[in-house]
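Researcher: Next sequence.
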Amino acid sequence: TQSTWGIEFNSKIEMAEASLLKQLKIKLGSVKRIHKEYASYQKEEEKQNERINKLELENQDEYTIRKQKEVLEEIKVMYPNVKSRLSEAYNDLKNFLDENLQDEQIKDATETLEAQDILSSIKEFLATI
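Model: Next structure:
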């Protein structure tokens, strides 16, 4: 049988196994992307705090400072949403690995090792936020 990408598979089982590796890559990518998104909000919050401190030191008008504080609050509002999505993606990847780790297609894949490392670090990260 031939896939849409021109790869030939000898059986439906090989197609399913390739599908497992593809699913693993997608789930791993999601965890990494959402973690990166959380980190970008942290950086943005830090920059915004610095901006507010600078404005306060320069004795800028209250309106400007207040508007910048509103921007800061908008950034902080995003944390629960991103944390929730990261937790969900973490659980999805963890459950996928728990169910499929012994499968020949992904058992020795580099993505599996990377996923296990990511799961470990994300578990620690989620405990701190």
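Model: The longest helix spans residues 12-57. The CA atoms of residues 91 and 119 lie 9 Å apart.
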